[in-house]
Amino acid sequence: MVKPFIPKLVYFEPKALDYPLGQQLFEKFKNMNLEIRYTTSHNQIRNLPGENDFQKYRVAKSTLVVGIRKTLKFDTSKPSAEYAIPLATGCMGHCHYCYLQTTMGSKPYIRTYVNVEEILEQADKYMEERAPEITRFEAACTSDIVGIDHLTHTLKRAIEHFGQSDLGQLRFVTKFEHVDHLLDAKHNGKTRFRFSINADYVIRYFEPGTSRLDKRIEAAAKVAKAGYPLGFIVAPIYLHEGWEEGYYQMFEKLDAELPQEARKDITFEFIQHRFTKPAKRVIQKNYPMTKLELDEEKRKYKWGRYGIGKYVYRTEQQEDIKSHLQEYMHKFFPHAKLEYFT
Asked: What is the pTM of this model?
C-alpha cells in the first residue's frame, strides 16, 4: 500500500490566503507541523533544498505549492474531452516515461489552486457556449489530481458541481488508491472515474511511488459500488518479455475483482508507449538507472503536432498489440467500449 501523499515542504502564494480554501489549507498544514514557506508566484519556486539536480528533482516531487490559477482559459487538446479543467499541476508519482517530465521541465513540484469557484464559473461559461451539446472536462491532464485530493478536496467540489449541471461531465484518471473521501460525493453519474492500469512488470519497474495494480483495482471496485461510471486507461502499453501474458493477467485480475453491476458502462483507452528526443534526455537525467527501452533504432519515427516527432512501435508491433489487447478486452468485458487506440 502506498501511503496518502503528505508534502515535505509547502509554499503559499500570499494571495492564496485571501481565499477560504487557502486559509483552510494553511491551518491544516500548520497543524501537521509541515515546513511552510512563501513565494511570489507558483511558477517561481527557487532555492529548493538539494546538493544536485538529482536531489532537487526528488525534493520538488514532494513539494506542494498553494496558489491561484490566473489563466482561466482552458486547454482544448485532449482526445477524451472538450476541455482540460485546471485544478492542479504536477504529480508525486515517479513514472519514468511520464510526459509531464518534459512539459513541466524545471518545475516538477505539485501545484494546487485555491480559486476553485472561479475555475468552475469558467467551466459553466464553456458549457453555456456549447449548449445544448454536452461538454466534457478532463481534470487530470497535467496532474494526478486524486493523489492530492485527500488534502484539498477540490476534485470533490468539482464532482459535486458537475453533478448539479445539466450539460457538463467530468472525467479524470488516477494511479492512486486513495478514493474513500470521494465515495459519498453527489456525482449523479456525471463523472467518469478512470484508473490507469498496466501489466505488473510496467508498474513494478516504471511506476514507483504509485499504488500497485491490486490496490488500484480494489479502489475501482469501491468507486463502481458508489455508482460512478468507470473507465480504464491501459497506458503506456509497453513491449517487454512476456507482455502478452502480462496484459492477459491484468485483464484477468480486473475481471476477478469488479462487481457485475459495474460492467454495464465501462470504457477503455489504449495508449502505446512512445517517446520524443527531449523526453529521452529528461528521463535519462532524472532516472539514470531506468530499464525503459528508449532505442530509436527499434522504433518508427512519426511526425507529431507542433513539429516534435515521436518514436513509436513499428507497424507490425502495433498491430500485434492492438489484436491482443482487443481480444482480451472482448473476452473479459464484452460490453465495454474502446474509446480509442493510439
From this structure: 0.95
